[in-house]
User: Which sequence fits this backbone?
């Protein structure tokens, strides 16, 4: 990651080129950099999650009513009885396989609003290797911080 100070920019922002992440800020202060990164991950998470939901949607008879991004220290996603799906912005830092696991997990809650056997069968039907993906999240989520 590179931090570039530029007093002429309109707004602090982040650019990814290849495998290089560059943060452009007016003032290179910790909180300013953190907020620019957080805004970047929020936006990327929303677009990424929406794209993955569209990818898996044909496997479901129901559609989410809304898709939101949240900040949470304890949840990667939620689905409520109104079919509102909510995802943690930190998912944008995870590998696509892990993002897909959380997306499919929450979409399966649109069918089963609990974690009963039927729910896990549906998750397993969609992602036979879901336990490995879940394991990655359990072991590596501590790295997904700003």
Assistant:
């Amino acid at each position: 990651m590179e931090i570039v100070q530029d007093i002429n920019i309109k707004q602090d922002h982040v650019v990814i080129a290849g495998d290089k992440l560059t943060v452009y800020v007016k003032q290179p202060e910790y909180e300013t950099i953190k907020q620019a990164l957080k805004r970047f991950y929020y936006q990327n998470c929303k677009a990424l999650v929406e794209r993955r939901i569209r990818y898996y949607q044909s496997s479901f008879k129901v559609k989410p009513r809304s898709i939101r991004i949240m900040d949470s220290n304890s949840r990667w996603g939620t689905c409520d009885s109104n079919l509102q799906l909510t995802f943690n912005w930190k998912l944008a830092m995870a590998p696509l396989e892990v993002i897909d696991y959380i997306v499919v997990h929450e979409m399966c809650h649109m069918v089963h609003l609990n974690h009963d056997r039927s729910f896990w069968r549906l998750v397993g039907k969609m992602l036979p290797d879901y336990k490995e993906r879940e394991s990655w999240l359990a072991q590596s989520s501590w790295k997904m911080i700003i």
